[in-house]
Amino acid sequence: MSPTPQVPSTDPRIIAVDTYDIRFPTSRELDGSDAMNPDPDYSAAYVVLRTDAHDGLEGHGFTFTIGRGNEIQVAALEALRPHLLGRSVEELCADPGSVSRDLVGDSQLRWLGPEKGVMHMAIGAVVNAAWDLAAKRAEKPLWQFLSDAEPEWLVGQIDFRYIADVLNPDQALGHLRRGREGAAQRTDALRERGYPAYTTSPGWLGYSDEKLILLAKEAVADGFRQVKLKVGADLEDDIRRMRVAREAVGPDIRIAIDANQRWSVPEAVEWTRALAEFDPYWIEEPTSPDDILGHAEIRKAVAPVRVATGEHVQNRIIFKQLLQMSAVDVLQLDAARVGGVNENLAILLLAAQYAVPVCPHAGGVGLCELVQHLAMFDFVALSGTTENRVIEYVDHLHQHFEEPVRMVAGHYAAPRAPGFSAMMRPESIERYRYPDGTFWLADEAAKEFKV
Amino acid sequence: MSPTPQVPSTDPRIIAVDTYDIRFPTSRELDGSDAMNPDPDYSAAYVVLRTDAHDGLEGHGFTFTIGRGNEIQVAALEALRPHLLGRSVEELCADPGSVSRDLVGDSQLRWLGPEKGVMHMAIGAVVNAAWDLAAKRAEKPLWQFLSDAEPEWLVGQIDFRYIADVLNPDQALGHLRRGREGAAQRTDALRERGYPAYTTSPGWLGYSDEKLILLAKEAVADGFRQVKLKVGADLEDDIRRMRVAREAVGPDIRIAIDANQRWSVPEAVEWTRALAEFDPYWIEEPTSPDDILGHAEIRKAVAPVRVATGEHVQNRIIFKQLLQMSAVDVLQLDAARVGGVNENLAILLLAAQYAVPVCPHAGGVGLCELVQHLAMFDFVALSGTTENRVIEYVDHLHQHFEEPVRMVAGHYAAPRAPGFSAMMRPESIERYRYPDGTFWLADEAAKEFKV
Question: Is the pTM for the entire model greater than 0.80?
Fold first, then answer.
């Protein structure tokens, strides 16, 4: 209908919501193997918001999955397209919360959750893409965009439904206003030193003891003060691996252990106690992420070992209860599991309300790239500290991103490029698009040749 | 490869997993409207397991949705196909639990939940289809197939992971053995009188007061002793509707109210108290189904009004905690939200363990047809009682099923046909398949004509 399509629009709109099924064949190296996930193919259901602003800016977001079912996530992204197409870019960037509320509030799609699983993760991907676009248009990395935002505006971004009984807008505003004090100095400190990280790369369950020792020593040499081991498949093995890991890193490096939900409550207690002599710093995902009371019971029984969970916690409502029940020592938010930045703001504020440290989950595909922004915002403009706070780091698949994380002496360097660091390289998309990317086509051809 | 495809196989296999996206245009009549779902198009992601047994038997199952997103459920069903194809029908019917465990345990698909939302509902549909086939091959309606089964075998069908801390296999066996005492007499009673029901048909939020009064009086005349009203959109309206409903049915008929998760905890308490003078029997879904502690708090604050929830409760782990926290007076299991019959057996046993009555959620598309079997099994061979127990009944869309529920004097008559009553009529599938069924094609053509 427009007679002048080449002229930049003065009121640009979202004109396309492109989706991609991207899969990396990580299972072939046992990277990412743990007690529940023996052979993950790290994948992303990837979404790009395109506009007619002719400024070259797009919004990028994704859901991380581990292979099969990534196409279901893509189908969920596509179901959200009608909510995005035609939206004013100015309005979307001025109020990403309105997108978030519309998506969560679609009554028919809500039935598929509510606010959990496939549908909620797809909403998270789209909401994150909106924030990516908003930060790019503001020409700031997301952590800075959030840190510079007015507390009142940030509070307006949050859906307080179902959490208002423990955190109301006034309380949230109080946290954010206090968080602003000293933000300029902390921004400088962040730019100088980065944000502390720990690494999971040595501890995958499929690795040999030799590889574990080598990588653990390397991690310490690289400046990490914490490593993590996957546990939960076999107790004898875990005792041996924990012993060699402790010997490799010495007594001063923290070793976290991670059971990836393998246990029921009694097993979790027994197993963790059996590893306690090696001084594990936390036990992560000891049981189902849905079991709030179970985590509370485990925490009482395994102290002083800390209890951590969050990467599979479906939304702010479960986090609220984990905090209400004093069920966790460490809250591990994930950038792509819940409903995007807006819900993660709520979760960061809940953690602040209960003074529980946030140590984000990362790894996967692009989760490090995303979540660093949330932790850095928390440091600069909310909790104001990195004490007992570390972001997980895993050293694979970063090469597929345009703005990969940069690690310096065991710290995440503060991103400088505008946006949410979510953009995948076009060559990587071309190669690993499933099933028709060049890698997968060649793989299929090779299989046929073998037969 | 088989040289004699026409001869019945002696070791029949699953040879096809057919899926259908079925949608009914219910939003046009405001049937099913409530405070969170103003315009549902009741839908089913439908699955048929076909075999090469040449006995004419198929396994039927489905997920209920309310319209948009039904295609995502279908995509999830399709992701499960490789787990089913080629399976031995004998083995599947002798141990549907093995299917359930395999589907829930697919480590890559598990990432999409775990055990919640789109992926878990799809698993429920497939698992229910397996049970449908098993009961048909045994030539029994499912309620009877379950009631006749050995307690040891039933216990073997249950996944105790994450619930073993409150219910272990020995305790489950105890409940089932006690439940068997007197089962023959209860089977006779069930066949004679059926299972008590309540009806939600009068109380949809979109109905006028006149329609509400008319339908409520009709319900009482039809023999129902309980009706239900949707509430939560506007308090003034709710007070007026509750008053006219109470006047219409008199003091002896129970009126349940249902907020469909509309409220945060403080609102739920306030609103329920404001309606207490009309003696509501229970408040259903006062807040998020994820908020276990919230339900516990609401229950304390609104007694003697009972608290009920369950239709959106994602799995046995959340039910476990609702029971642990004494957060509900009434547990409303749903036949198609969780991981199928196996997980519902666990939930019925948890309810028995805590002596909480189960009043199943129904309505939707085919949920009445399915869930009656679970309640009847519970009466005959587990709890042994229908005291304070009623199955929800909604009077639409039954005509699309081959074996629709039969209501007699406010009771569900015990199904006599073998299976799980899940089979939709082929004409209905042909007409309401989306988007290419005859109804939807005509609808699309009519729209174009109007433009």
Answer: yes
